[in-house]
Amino acid sequence: MMRGHDWVDRDLYPFESKYLDVGPGRVHYVDEGSGPIVLMVHGTPVWSFVYRALIRDLSRDHRVIAPDHLGFGLSDRPDDFGYRPADHARVLEELIGQLGLRDITLVVHDFGGPIGLSYAARHPDNVRALVLFNTWLWSLTGSKSERIARVMGGGFGRFLYTRLNISPRTIVPASFGDRSRLSKAAHRHYIEALDTPRARYPSWVLARELLGSSQWYDQLWKDRAVLARHPTLFVWGRKDPAFGDALPRWREAFPDARVLELVDVGHFVQEEAPQEATSAIRTFLAEAAVPET
Asked: Could you report the per-residue pLDDT of 196-240, keeping only the tens digit for each?
């Protein structure tokens, strides 16, 4: 039951809520279906809700697990947790260990990229394949994103995030290739999840850590050859104002990866093009499951 979360539309998000104590707090997650394991890792300011269409479809013949990071979605918001990407990565590793997940296909997006790929770099033998939506894995210092990252990570940005809730209200729709694809009902689930200044603090920390965790990202990028050994699929929205043009860098590092480019889609591919994304992932998983000869 989703007690205390009456704003969640059970028709849109019809999954059983489960909780796991990871030390700092309880992580909410969904665990649907059976079969090969697919673990979906979200970014900011969204939560597992963003993967709902993929969960519905893939759970027909896969075990699909989608957690909410601490401070996001339906998970706890402990006061003594750091909320940096490395902190979320440690929690994800704890969840994988407690649930005994083996031979995982990791699906990652946005901050879920470095958070999830950190696990893949540390435990490559427990990862079967990778699916990457728009994300990154390197320092943003010197990039076109640096200036806005410095503003959002400072005091003014904290005000915008915690007091005005700018991240789900404004940044999310602005990140779509076609804003009409973001329904009012879906948009409400991102706004309601961050209903108080305290609830919005974790999303601001990630804005701060766009630059604050640069050394951590660069260390992960050094492990890209280890990551590239896995079968990999990129599902990429080209109209993403943040990472739309990052795909060539990924393709150079992952030359054998399969790629689906969606030229009219923005940052939140799961919301804008769920059917195309699911179809591509299904084909990819079927091919990745065939042993090499």
From this structure: 999 999 999 999 999 999 999 999 999 999 999 999 999 999 999
Which residue ranges make up each domain of the chain? 18-141+215-288
Q: Which amino acid, 69? A: H
Q: What angle do CA 178, 180, 182 make, to 5 degrees?
A: 95
For the segment 135-179, what is each residue's pLDDT rounded down to a tens digit? 999 999 988 889 999 999 999 999 999 999 999 999 999 999 999
Per the residue annotation, which of 240, 245, 256, 264 is the catalytic one?
A: 240
Taking residue 141's Cβ as centre, other Cβ atoms within 10 Å add up to 14
Determine whether 267 is an active site residue: yes
Active site residue 123: no
* Beta carbons of 84 and 209 less than 8 angstroms apart: yes
Identify the architecture of domain 18-141+215-288 in CATH.
Answer: 3-Layer(aba) Sandwich (3.40)
| Marked catalytic residue, from 28, 109, 230, 267 | 267
Q: Is 87 a catalytic residue?
A: no
Instruction: Indicate which residue of 87, 109, 110, 189 is catalytic.
Output: 110
Using CB atoms within 10 Å of the CB of residue 50, give its burial: 0 to 12 exposed, 13 to 18 middle, 19+ buried.
buried
Tracing tokens 């929205």 back to the chain, one arrives at 237
CB atoms within 10 A of CB 293: 3
Q: Are 128 and 141 in contact (CB under 8 A)?
A: no
